[in-house]
Every structure is written in structure tokens, then in C-alpha cells.
Design goal:
single chain, 6-stranded mixed β-sheet, alpha+beta, about 200 residues, 6 strands, about 35% helix, 6 helices, Nuclear Transport Factor 2, Chain: A
């Protein structure tokens, strides 16, 4: 196995471990996929990885039901830096207007990854939200969404945001989608990362 093949395998392993360990509540091992300065961006949370682990664990213990499923991963490596894009779905189950529902959001994890002291770990995870849908669990149930609230959120994750807003989360409304300025800016940041540029400080809210 060449060094490049070993690096690509390690990065793919890292991406897969993130999803399995996070959804299983394996918090000690989940912490190992991040560098100490790692940062997580999500619709409902933006901040240091350590804080993300803390709030994820608290939610897990309270019954918050958010699961992830991965598809293919494309990896670009430049020295000790990499960008990994992984097809994924986010599946959250919760009550919407007292009706149990599932929201499934399809997109990509866009990961800024760096090799330090021989280990590839995540510096920044920025999801790209491409398309979502909401389904009631009971086919006989009736549900009407507030169109004004739904319209406040971007098309790629508006149903996910609607559910999370109803649960009391402050949802970030400027996340990148399949097209548009936000995702184009993310691609520029990724190219800069691979060329050795410093990563701009992530912003919450």
C-alpha cells in the first residue's frame, strides 16, 4: 500500500467512525475524530467540537433522535491537509405540532481535515444541505405546516429547520445548499485550505 492509499483509507475510516460513534453514543471514541481545535457547523449548533459532543450527549440521553447514513466519499489530499466530501442523510424523528414525524435531509459532509502527529482528524465539518422531506409516521395522521414559518428557511433544509425550530432550537439560516453563493464560498475555502491558507474563523449564529 502506498502512503497516498494509506492516507485515503485513514480519512475514509475517520468519516465513517464519526457517523457510527456519534449515533451509537460512543462519546469517548467520538471525541478522537476531532483535533483539539475542531469545530462543528450544523443547523442547530455551531461551535467547538468539545461543546458539540457535550450537547449531543445531553440530547442523546434525553431521547433526541438524530441519525446519519453515509454514501460515497470523495477525498482531495495536499500534503498534510485534505478535503473530504461524503454523501449523507440526516434523519431526525420528533413531534411536529404534536404529530410524530420523520425528516430526512440529503446532502454532503464537507470536512476540512489535517494530519498532525501522524493522525488525520477533523478541523472543521460543514454540512451541505441539498434536499429534504417530512413524513408523518402514522399514515392516518393529519398535519398542516405553517407556510410562513416554512418559508423562513432555505429550500435544502426547510423541513428539518421547521422541526428543529419547533423544538426550540435556534436554526442557522445561511447554511450552504446544492447551489448558490454559500456553497461556492465553501468550495473556495476548501481550495484555499488545500493550498496552505489559514482557515477563516468559523462563525456561529
Amino acid at each position: 500500500m502506498t502512503d497516498m492509499q494509506a492516507d485515503r483509507l485513514a480519512i475514509r475510516d475517520l468519516v465513517e467512525n464519526w457517523a457510527v460513534w456519534r449515533d451509537a453514543g460512543d462519546w469517548e471514541r467520538f471525541a478522537t475524530v476531532w483535533h483539539d481545535d475542531g469545530w462543528m457547523m450544523a443547523t442547530w449548533f455551531q461551535g467547538p467540537a468539545a461543546d458539540f459532543i457535550k450537547v449531543s450527549r445531553e440530547g442523546f440521553e434525553k431521547g433526541v433522535n438524530i441519525l446519519h447514513f453515509l454514501g460515497g466519499t470523495a477525498i482531495d489530499i495536499a500534503g498534510d491537509r485534505a478535503i473530504a466530501q461524503s454523501k449523507m442523510t440526516i434523519n431526525q424523528r420528533a413531534a411536529v405540532h404534536d404529530v410524530p414525524c420523520d425528516v430526512v435531509c440529503t446532502g454532503r459532509f464537507y470536512d476540512f481535515i489535517e494530519k498532525r502527529s501522524g493522525a488525520w482528524k477533523i478541523v472543521l465539518r460543514q454540512p451541505i444541505y441539498e434536499k429534504d422531506r417530512l413524513d408523518v409516521i402514522d399514515p392516518a395522521a393529519s398535519l398542516s405546516l405553517n407556510p410562513d414559518v416554512l418559508a423562513r428557511f432555505p429550500e435544502g433544509y426547510r423541513h428539518l429547520a421547521y422541526l428543529q425550530d419547533g423544538l426550540g432550537f435556534k436554526v442557522k439560516t445561511t447554511m450552504p445548499g446544492l447551489k448558490g453563493p454559500a456553497v461556492e464560498e465553501l468550495y473556495k475555502r476548501g481550495a484555499g485550505w488545500l493550498s496552505g491558507e489559514a482557515l477563516p474563523a468559523p462563525k456561529a449564529g
